[in-house]
Specification:
Elements lengths: L18 E2 L2 E2 L13 E4 L6 E4 L7 E3 L6 E3 L6 E2 L2 H7 L8 E4 L2 E13 L2 E10 L3 E8 L2 E7 L5 E3 L2 E4 L2 E19 L10 E9 L2 E7 L4 E9 L1 H8 L19 H25 L2 E10 L7 E22 L6 E11 L5 E15 L2 E7 L1 E24 L31 E9 L4 H30 L12
Antiparallel strand pairs: 1-2, 3-4, 5-6, 6-7, 8-9, 9-10, 9-15, 10-11, 11-12, 12-18, 13-14, 14-15, 15-16, 16-17, 17-18, 19-25, 20-24, 20-25, 21-22, 21-24, 22-23
Helix pairs in contact: 3-4
């Protein structure tokens, strides 16, 4: 058993020996006659105190907890220890609070420990609903109740009300280190039980046993604000490491984030399918001058009918070889002269070296405009054809039989002047870059939530007796 043990174990609940006003008291029965020696129970710790001068003594100190007891009356009264301890409790005895619509009164308190792993339990009472345990450990709270049936299943997985619990602590020994108030069985310092615990998010199942009986209890995790509102404890406390059954605070965000991310991705894909279909707005050709001068052509009209759309200009230069074409585009709105610009270059090269023939580039070039408003546009095309001389080609000289043959120039090699085939296409919706950016913006907070959840779960599982090796590190 590690130093970590259950924060929500409840003592077994034996039959009540005595009751008053619906509550069981941890007090010994007073004998009718008063012999010379008499044994009484300490109301604070439950220890047995022997009165050697019964009938004469007025007060006596408990040898177990040092409480001062008034034994002048048949009912033993606690004089000092009870009040001193009660004033230091997080929830004073007698405090009333409402949880889940039921009003509870704090009637008892005990502190428990297992190998240095300590917690405290407040006994709650309601005359119509019986007893519950309000358990505090490291600033976290749980509400425990006794089970009247044995859980189903085997050690590796138990079920209660259809909910599955997995092992968390094993072979523990929970000891009572301090006790104050009223209880429905005899309890004192030093009482101990053997313990095992199983958990699921939000709940813990505990088994406690001694040489006489076995009892089962189930505790439910409570948020600190809920306990603060009911009993006035500090609301800002935060349990760390997490309680064994504490749900990850990031899990609801992660689950919701996954659903939202999937819906958003589906919406983006649907929008791309519905709005992203291409539609040719204009198609034609412009010629390229053989002398490589700057040229300009104005084509149109180009009608954009959607409220917003992307526009793509595709240029093909079939004759391009060992050269490039600079392309500049300007879409001008005829109505208000608003202009949108883009540029691109088509280039194609080939040659031969020691490794053989090679080619590089593409005779086509695509330029995209961002989302454009509806309107009638003219496309202004500024372009220039350029030739490239292969530096590996031998220079022409007098002895060269091909000396009078000029270097090849794709702008003059054909019978007809080369041309640029232009096609203007409307592309609705967001582009791939925008789609990717939106996806990243969705995944970043989800990733942060997953990291927080993983860190929380790692810290929670590290408390378990069944933690994977290395979790404690």
């Amino acid at each position: 058993m590690t130093a970590a043990t259950s924060s929500s174990r409840s003592l077994r609940r034996p039959a009540c020996a005595r009751s008053r006003g619906g509550r069981c008291l941890a007090m010994a029965e007073a004998a009718a006659p008063q012999p010379a020696a008499k044994a009484v129970s300490c109301p604070n710790c439950g220890g047995t105190v022997t009165l050697r001068a019964a009938g004469y003594s007025v007060t006596v100190a408990c040898e177990y907890c040092a409480s001062i007891l008034d034994v002048s009356q048949p009912e033993v009264q606690l004089v000092t220890r009870y009040n001193e301890r009660a004033t230091r409790l997080a929830i004073p005895l007698g405090t009333r609070g409402t949880l889940d619509g039921t009003e509870w009164e704090v009637v008892g308190w005990m502190a428990r420990d297992d190998s240095g792993y300590a917690w405290q339990e407040f006994l709650l009472f309601n005359p119509y609903h019986g007893y519950r345990w309000l358990i505090e450990q490291r600033g976290g709270w749980s509400l425990g109740e006794q089970l009247t049936r044995t859980p189903e299943g085997a050690w590796g997985g138990l079920k209660v009300d259809g909910e599955r619990y997995t092992p968390f602590f094993a072979d523990g020994t929970a000891r009572v280190t301090d006790v104050v108030g009223e209880f429905y069985w005899r309890v004192k310092r030093g009482d101990s039980v053997r313990t095992d615990d199983w958990v699921r998010p939000g709940a813990m199942l505990s088994r406690e046993a001694d040489d006489h009986e076995v009892s089962w209890s189930r505790s439910r995790y409570l948020s600190t604000p809920a306990v603060a509102g009911a009993f006035g404890v500090p609301a800002h406390t935060k349990a760390w490491p997490p309680l064994p059954h504490q749900p990850s605070p990031a899990l609801p965000f992660v689950k919701a984030g996954i659903v939202i991310a999937l819906l958003a991705v589906a919406a983006l894909i649907l929008g791309a399918v519905v709005m992203g279909g291409g539609r040719t707005l204009w198609q034609g050709s412009v010629t390229i001058a053989s002398d490589g001068r700057d040229q300009q052509a104005i084509v149109g009209p180009i009608e954009l009918t959607r409220p917003w759309q992307r526009v793509r200009v595709v240029a093909d230069v079939p004759a391009l070889s060992n050269g490039w074409v600079d392309l500049g585009y300007t879409l001008v709105d005829r109505k208000n002269q608003a202009s949108f610009t883009a540029s691109k270059a088509a280039e194609r090269y080939s040659g031969r070296d020691s490794d053989g023939d090679w080619t590089e580039g593409d005779r086509s070039a695509t330029a995209d405009f961002a989302t454009l408003p509806a309107g009638t546009y003219d496309l202004v095309v500024d372009y220039k054809g350029n030739n490239w001389i292969d530096p590996s080609r031998p220079p022409s000289n007098f002895w060269d039989l091909n000396a009078n043959e000029p270097a090849p120039d794709w702008r003059r090699s054909g019978a007809f002047a080369p041309q640029i085939d232009l096609r203007v296409v409307s592309r609705g919706g967001a582009g791939g870059g925008v789609f990717f950016l939106m996806l990243v913006l969705l995944l970043i907070p989800l990733g942060i939530g997953l990291l927080i959840h993983a860190h929380f779960e790692s810290a929670r599982r590290a408390e378990s007796d069944f933690a994977a090796q290395g979790d404690d590190d």
